[in-house]
Amino acid sequence: MIPLAEQLRPTSLDNYIGQSHLVGKGAILRNAIESGRIPSMILWGPPGIGKTTLAHIISQTLNRPFHVLSAINAGVKDVRVVIEAAEKEDNAILFIDEIHRFNKSQQDSLLGAVEKGTITLIGATTENPSFEVISALLSRCQVYILKEFGVEELTQLLNIAAKHIKQTQNRTLDIKETEALFRLSGGDARKLLNALELIINISPNEHIVIDNNNVLNVIQKNLAIYDKKGENHYDIISAFIKSMRGSDPNGAVYWLARMIAGGEDPLFIARRMLILAAEDIGNANPNALLLAQACFETIKVIGMPEGRIPLSQTAIYLASSPKSNASYLAIDTALAMVEKYKDLPVPLHLRNAPTKLMKEIGYGKNYQYAHDFENNFVNQEFLPKEIAGQKFYNPGDNIRENEIRKRLKSLWKDKYEY
After folding, report:
1. Chain-wide mean pLDDT for the chain?
2. pTM score
3. Long-range contacts of 226-230 (CB under 8 A, 24+ apart)
4. Which residues are paired to 69 by β-bridges?
5. Would you tell me how many other CB atoms lie within 10 Å of the CB of residue 2?
6. What is the mean pLDDT of residues 331-349?
7. Which residues, including other chains, have CB under 8 Å from residue 75's CB and lie 6 or more apart?
8. CA of 260: how far to CAs of 100, 103, 254, 336, 368, in Å?
9. 116: closest CA among 87, 138, 139, 82?
10. I want to staple 127 with a disulfide (CB 3.0 to 4.6 A). Which of 100, 159, 273, 415 is the partner?
11. pLDDT tens for residues 139-188?
12. Which one, of 35, 113, 130, 28, lies nearest residue 67 by Cα?
């Protein structure tokens, strides 16, 4: 029997749910599709939000030859076979699911065909393409970011499913509560429909009540059916990150072991530790970021299974390290200020003055060179006048950042409160 998620897969942009910033009326990707001139592209976003579906819709809308490869089981030979076929076709599209799993040589094999226009590449990935796609290929592709489904999109999908069940099975879904169903889906449309299908298949009634208790009872009793791997990629990495953030090396090592045993990509794990080192430790222990970077590079060199050892060392170090999210909060506060005030002009005294005219109109005037003053410091304004005095960085309460706080307080005692 065809799974419900496949039965409901949309076939046109008009019944495609979500991603209105890309495929809504007048949006950038929709305009490209409707013009018939699409670039090679990388679709980046979490699972179950329509990357594969969008690729199929593009090919159907443009009526082009469509080839599909999965990076899980395809190699350079498979890529070459498709390219040879595409050379005999007109404007062929090659869709590669999980393109982040292609290694460098596999990605290199795509370059010539993409550059010559033999194929239009559509790659789908749940991982940041900046890390996972080689720069030469990335420069030839447009990256489109797809967003996780929210309540509005999930509700729309649920209503479509209810109507479909009524038409195809003559059974009625009485949707009373959606909180549990949406929570279990995690913004993943496929998970939502799989869970709903499980509830429908188990129920003997023609009138099926969907409420929180019913959903939780059915899913918990049939977890092995709902999640056939018995693992949840995103739940486990979340537990791993939160264990390190919570300074529990035991929890961190356990969840690390779960990921290693489950065959998780070690570079994915190392990359998440890099992010945590900057976001949750920061200047409380700057060496954390250095160790995380060293771990990432070491994994590239030695691979697995030996890579489990530096992964464990780094996870334990990060979990045991003092924590501070001050740098993370600082950049988010600054970005909010940029969004509020947009492009404030750079103060004249901070501008470079490479030409005589620029000097004459005041560029660089009254700038004070810090090294000409005692302690290599002079009190001057470095922010636009509209936000002068705004403090973005507030050092955390730990040994290293208390030292930073002490220094900043002595330097800026007349301007900022530290």
Report:
1. 89
2. 0.62
3. 226/194, 226/195, 226/198, 229/262
4. 96
5. 7
6. 90
7. 106
8. 18, 19, 10, 38, 54
9. 87
10. 100
11. 999 999 999 898 999 999 999 999 999 999 999 998 998 988 888 887 88
12. 113
Most confident of 160-164, 185-189, 202-206, 358-362: 160-164
Q: How many angstroms separate the CA atoms of 385 and 29, rounded?
A: 39
Give percent of the chain above pLDDT 70.
Answer: 97
Q: Which of 331, 337, 351 lies closest to 386, judged by CA?
A: 337
CA dihedral 9, 15, 17, 19 (to 10 degrees): 120
> The dihedral of CA 188, 189, 195, 196: what is its sign?
positive
Answer for the pair 256, 240: CB distance below 8 angstroms, yes or no: yes
Question: What tens digit of pLDDT does each residue of 9-41 get?
Answer: 999 999 999 999 999 999 999 999 999 999 999
Rounded mean pLDDT, 112-134? 90
**From CA 86, how far away is CA 67, in angstroms rounded?**
9
**Length reported for the chain:** 418
HEC assignment per residue over the chain: CCCHHHHCCCCCHHHCCCCHHHHCCCCHHHHHHHHCCCCCEEEECCCCCCHHHHHHHHHHHHCCCEEEEECCCCCHHHHHHHHHHHCCCCCEEEEEECHHHCCHHHHHHHHHHHHHCCEEEEEEECCCHHHHCCHHHHCCCEEEECCCCCHHHHHHHHHHHHHHHHHHHCCEEEECCCHHHHHHHCCCHHHHHHHHHHHHHHCCCCEEEECHHHHHHHHHHCHHHHCCCCCCHHHHHHHHHHHHHCCCHHHHHHHHHHHHHCCCCHHHHHHHHHHHHHHHHHHHCCHHHHHHHHHHHHHHHHCCCCCHHHHHHHHHHHHHCCCCCHHHHHHHHHHHHHHHHCCCCCCHHHCCCCCHHHHHCCCCCCCCCHHHCHHHCCCCCCCCHHHCCCCCCCCCCCHHHHHHHHHHHHHCCCCCCC
As given in the structure block, the two tokens for residue 227 are: 């999640």
94 bridge partner residues: 67, 121
CA distance 227 to 61: 33
413 DSSP β-pair partners: none
Question: What mean pLDDT is predicted for residues 325-334?
Answer: 93
405-416 in b/e burial notation, b at 16+ Cβ within 10 A? Answer: beebeeeeeeee
Judge whether residue 316 has pLDDT over 90: yes
